Amino acid sequence: MASLEMTRKFKRKNPEAYHKMVKRLFCDSIEGDFKESDFFYEPESPRKDSSTGCLTGVKRVKSQVCLLTKESQVRGLYQLIEYLGLDKNLREEGIFRKSGSLKKQHDLLEKINKGEEVSLFDGEFSIHECASVLKTCLGNLPEPLVTNSCFPAHLQVALLHDKYTSQEDMPALVEKQIFCTQLLIELIPEEYFKLLKDLLFLLHGVCQREEENKMSSTNLGVIFCTHILSPRSMPPRELQTKLGVLTNATTFLIENPSILFTLPEKLLAEVQSFQFRRNSEGRRSLSKRSSQGGPGVECLIANTVFSFIPMEMEEGAAGEKNEEDDEKESNFVCDQLESTITSQFNLNIEIMNIKK
After folding, report:
1. What's the confidence (pLDDT) of residue 298?
2. Which of 49, 68, 226, 330 is the most exposed place for a label (fewest CB within 10 A)?
3. What's this model's pTM, rounded to 2 decimal places?
4. Which long-range contacts (CB under 8 A, 24 or more apart) does 207-216 make?
5. Residues 85, 95 contacting (CB under 8 angstroms)
6. Is the torsion defined by CA of 295, 298, 301, 304 positive or negative?
């Protein structure tokens, strides 16, 4: 648990170093000559009909104008996912395959685009119409949910199948696919991360009820690979060529969301090792400064002690507290001071050991 919290904190406070670490682990693990600079997608040929969209609104289609705020569109997406995730809806035959009324789809999309309140539980829109609008909204995002930069890496993971041909190799293949995909998911921006997670758990729920809804994970992989994996700028010819690989990769994501959204032990250990090295370097630096006559641990302790004194004085001057409150705060300051001096004393002992 401590390693997990440390990793999340490190990712939040130092995202660049964290992403660099994740990319390095991926490049070391994937087979083939894949470098950090390969986290970049360039289409094989320019796409003439490419259009742009934004997470703050939908792309412009004919006369449709992008007028939305981020909150309204994202709220609509999550409303659709939540509604479709109800057990009775997951069992609907042909969900994500049948479309329903085009006019109703247009009306629902317009309501979401304008940020209007939408009640999906009153029966105005069918399950199939809601499912179709969800696909439309996902298609209007500027990038696939795994992002353009990670697309080549996901392609490399999918192509591992070509290198593991025997049945005996399958466990090793799946283990490597899971580890590499776990790393790639850590590179997804936060707003896409949550959306991808919720979508994959929704689709996993759908394929688990295949006997009733007639939708397998492969069916869903074909339908959603363009929303989850393939860049918007990918020309049709390239998409057609890579459709099989994209479908397999998307199917793998749909079948394994529970494990893919957990952090691999190797990454946790790497972050812990990085933090330990950084702390050791800091202690050595303090030791060096102290041995050269500069401010070392003693200065840190003094600064820590005196940092509490002004605080105590200010609180005393602020005035008019009863004796019980004053005693509590005084005890708190003393406890904090004792704890800090003890930890700094332990640090001083460690540094003395280093000097030896």
Report:
1. 52
2. 49
3. 0.74
4. 207/254, 207/255, 208/90, 209/90, 209/91, 212/91, 212/93, 213/90, 213/91, 213/92, 213/93, 213/94, 213/95, 214/93, 214/94, 214/97, 215/94, 215/95, 215/96, 215/97
5. no
6. negative
pLDDT tier, 37 (very low <50, low <70, confident <90, very high otherwise): confident
Question: In terms of pLDDT, which residue wins out, 187 or 71?
Answer: 187
Confidence band of 63 (pLDDT split at 50, 70, 90): very low
- Dump the DSSP string for 74-143: HHHHHHHHHHHTSHHHHT-TTTTT----HHHHHHHHHHHHTT----TTSSSS-HHHHHHHHHHHHHTSSS
Token representation of residue 348: 């001083």
Q: What is the rounded CA–CA span in Å between residue 151 and residue 146?
A: 7
Q: Would you state the pLDDT for residue 57?
A: 35
- Dihedral in degrees, nearest 10, Cα atoms 56, 62, 65, 68: -30
